[in-house]
Design a protein that fits this description.
This protein is an alpha+beta fold and 216 residues long. It contains seven helices and four strands; from the N terminus they run H-H-E-H-E-H-E-E-H-H-H. A four-stranded mixed sheet has the order 1-2-4-3, sandwiched between helices. Helix 3 links the parallel strand 1 (48-52) and strand 2. It is globular, with a radius of gyration of 17 Å.
């Protein structure tokens, strides 16, 4: 069982590794498991903008988000449909990350981008309300690094028109992850290759889960 893919080539920058890990997760998990039917189209067309922030505190993350929201709003949708703002140095604690999302929503309103853009969220320790930390269904929203997904509302509306059963995606994802299992998820090799705190937390959660199963 492994959660790593190929070792980075010598001379590869941290930003390049972080983006490569995120693309790997997108291709193997989000698209590979069909967790988001809308992701493949923008990925194949090269319409996803990946940006890595060096921010290590809330203020820095807020500044990066402000900048990327404005950039996406001004960009040509044919060239940049969506943005993944990746935060390898900040908001490792999921509760802190979740709390930041309120600030993100407020920022959209302050920039008069309500109804135009929205922010979705992914985190290595993402946990849905009412679930245990090692519940495999949490993996539907688990990314290698804390990530803010900036989306255009128009693009969401168009995607839903093409996929009329959008409301069933959540339940299908839960079933997919239940069948895959936590070990199966880790075997995908979509983890972070950078030694950040959450990486060990994921391994520990998987180990605890395996021990619990043996005890049963």
């Amino acid at each position: 069982m492994t959660d790593d893919h190929a070792t980075p080539a010598q001379g590869t920058s941290m930003h390049e590794v972080v983006i490569a890990d995120t693309v790997n997760w997108l291709e193997k998990a989000v698209i590979g498991l069909n967790l988001c039917p809308f992701a493949k189209g923008v990925h194949v067309k090269g319409q996803i903008h990946y940006t890595v922030s060096d921010a290590d505190d809330v203020e820095g993350v807020a500044q990066a988000l402000h900048r990327e929201l404005e950039a996406l709003a001004e960009a040509n949708p044919e060239r940049r449909d969506t943005t993944l703002l990746i935060l390898p140095y900040a908001l490792h604690d999921f509760l802190d990350f979740n709390e930041f999302l309120e600030l993100a929503d407020d920022m959209i309103d302050e920039l008069d981008l309500g109804g135009i853009l929205q922010v979705a969220s992914f985190h290595p320790l993402y946990q849905f309300e009412g679930t245990d930390v090692d519940d495999v269904t949490n993996c539907t929203n688990r990314s290698p690094y804390p990530t803010l997904h900036l989306l255009r509302e128009d693009s969401i509306d168009k995607a839903v028109e093409v996929f009329p059963e959008a409301e069933s995606i959540y339940e299908k994802n839960m079933d997919t992850l239940d069948q895959l299992g936590l070990e199966g998820w880790l075997d995908l090799g979509v983890g972070a290759r950078c030694p950040f705190p959450h990486k060990e937390s994921q391994k520990n959660a998987a180990a605890d889960h395996a021990d619990d199963q043996k005890a049963d």
